[in-house]
Amino acid sequence: MKNKMAKYLLYILNIFFAVIIISPVLYCFNVSMMTMKEVFSGGFWPKQLIPDNYIKALQLAPFFTFIKNSLIVSCTVTFGQIVTGALAAYAFSMMKFRGRNALFLLMLATMMIPSQAIIIANYLIICDLGLKNTYTALILPNVASAFAVFNMRQAFLQLPMEIKEAADIDGCGNFRFFCFIALPLVKPSMGALGIYTFLQSWNHYLWPLLVTDSVNMRTVQIGLGMLQGAESTDFRPVMAGSMIILVPSILAFILGQKQLISGLTSGSVKG
Amino acid sequence: MKRRKKWLAAIMAAVMSMTLAACGGSATSGGTTAAGSTDAATTKAASDTQAPAEGGKTVITLWHAMGGVNGEATEALVKAFNESQNEIEVKSEYQGKYDDLITKLKAAMQSGSMPDVCQMYDIGTKFMTDSGHAIPVQDMFATTNFDPSTVMNIITSYYTVNGKQMSMPFNVSTPMLYYNKDVFKAAGLDPNTPPKTFDEVLEFSKKIVESKAAPVGYAQAIYGWFFEQQIAGQGKFYANNENGRKAPATEVDFLNNGAGLKIFETWKKLMDSGYADNYGSTTADTQTAFFSGQAAMIIESTAILKTATESSDFEIGTGYLPKIDASAADGGVIIGGASLWMMDNKDEAKKNAAWKFIEFTTTPDSQATWSMSTGYFAVNPKAYETPAMKDFIAQNPNFTTAINQLKDTPVNGYTAGVLSGVATESRTIFNEAMEKTYDGTYTPEQAVSFLAEKVNAAIANYNSSTK
């Protein structure tokens, strides 16, 4: 009985916090359905469900092209960061070689450099390489990150050393151990890193703006910028645009979350 | 064998770390430009910026910062130009908001990939002039016998440096007073008589709040632009050397001439009365307070008139920007907005093409269409005589207030506004000074000296870096 009470209380609390968290998104959707005067009349709910603002948003900025570009870029960046991060982290955590710690610290130090400080330098390099206005330019500088290596290293360090020793005794090489034993065990970390990286890449604004010029190479966040005026903004298309670009990031989260849970439930060493 | 593996690992880790440091290394698959299925205007802007010529046409690039309806109007203007002749093709590219655009242009100046025409906001004028990458538009007037009086003098004066017009005004606005006529009626005020001075603003606000017609009488965003406007409104200079237009400014003038103190005192008094309120430095928040009927009067750009009319559930009235000192005859408003600059890409054909496009933007028809669809001023007075524009003004009498205010403003050094390389920084410092005055940390005197000291330091820093 007491247990049941606690359960219900937990549910009520959960619902309460869920409502708080979801209300801005809900309001965003509501505004995207409102008429101009409704927005400022103070109501929370729209009086009608109309697609006008979505049509307007799509007129002002080709969001489907932007979503395609952002998907290409974000997926590649996520894949790249997981691959490079896992490989480097494996070396940093499971292998012993001279200068390992120094190299790791050097790499960590790059996290201290604010991205704004190097963005112009990166831009000039991309220009020199003749890569302006290409997907490569959008992807390349983000394909590896110190954070990904750090994050994956923490995951590998969590694995009991006994697994590695057992593998060594059985004659299992590093690459095989990495692919078939270590990686499946760090799936939750890969999932978390994947979600984080995808969302970060999805939200990039300044870098895509710098290295692309033409409308059909642009990404979603620039699309939102295209809806805003200099002196005043009609917020309804902006909210409609936000709703449109929200869908892929929610999907990414759902997909990543599955990985998270399946990884958490897979066991390793007995006892 | 084991040793080799260790080395492999070391190399692997080293390669990973190096990829992080910069974006060197081997490139992955080359990106391709995918064809978008959007409207004609956007697909035109698709291919490479550096495209030399298409079918004998001179192709030039325009960078702009116009989003939303203004972005649509810009595309329409470019399209109209491209269809008006068959020698030049303008490719317009949106490059983010004003601040993003200037960042991108600075990077492009370094990498040598500048556009041929670039829009730049008012406060970027000094930077553009000092960059050395711009061709003054006045140098091009003779090539097409362009009459400088095509564009209103009060507008070009802002973009004139050392007697030379540097750029062509594109989107122009000034601040003005917006008020809620319904609230005025409810408070027993004449809905057709807006306040002219800040004394009247206070008096009207008191009536509005005390009659409970609206919870807040007056509001204005904490925005350095309004401070600059009130200095010009008193017929005073912001900075020395005639607002930095005779020679580069070396220090602010508003401290010595007393204009700054008067502004801080007036606004502080208004806020302390309890009849006015402060919604912070985001102009959209003050707009929201007005549109929703909470604040009865606000100061805003003339460019938001269209949005204001469409957003508000009440009748909107407009008036001239209230003055601090009603007797200042030399005072007036300063124009804001942005202008079109010609970038020097050392290409004669592109230079001439760029000028022809800029000249096209000033024709009465271009300006009338532009003004009607955006709410900015038409820079060419003849635009107001076109039938379409006459109809538009008849339907939007509030727009007349904006035009008349500009026409009534004397053309002089005060209303030309300050030419400063540190305008953005100064406005940020102003925000701090104003906030600290409102919350009582600083007295108006302290706030003005704080502001003057910080801005002077910024000016000195800028001057030493450009020498």
From TrEMBL, chain A:
Domain of life of the source: Bacteria
Coiled-coil ranges per UniProt: none
Compartment annotation: Cell membrane
Membrane-traversing stretches: 9-27, 71-92, 104-126, 138-156, 177-199, 235-255
InterPro entries according to UniProt: MetI-like (IPR000515), MetI-like_sf (IPR035906)
Matching CDD domains: TM_PBP2
Record flagged with keyword Cell wall biogenesis/degradation: no
Any one Gene Ontology cellular component term annotated for this protein: plasma membrane
Domain ABC transmembrane type-1 span(s) in chain numbering: 67-256
UniProtKB keywords: Cell membrane, Membrane, Transmembrane, Transmembrane helix, Transport
Pfam family of the protein (one): BPD_transp_1
Main location: membrane
GO biological process: transmembrane transport
Membrane topology: Multi-pass membrane protein
SUPFAM superfamilies reported in the protein's UniProt record: MetI-like
PROSITE patterns per record: ABC_TM1 (PS50928)
Family stated for the protein in its record: Belongs to the binding-protein-dependent transport system permease family.
PANTHER family xrefs: ABC TRANSPORTER PERMEASE PROTEIN MG189-RELATED-RELATED (PTHR43744), SN-GLYCEROL-3-PHOSPHATE TRANSPORT SYSTEM PERMEASE PROTEIN UGPE (PTHR43744:SF8)
Name by which UniProt lists this protein: ABC transporter permease
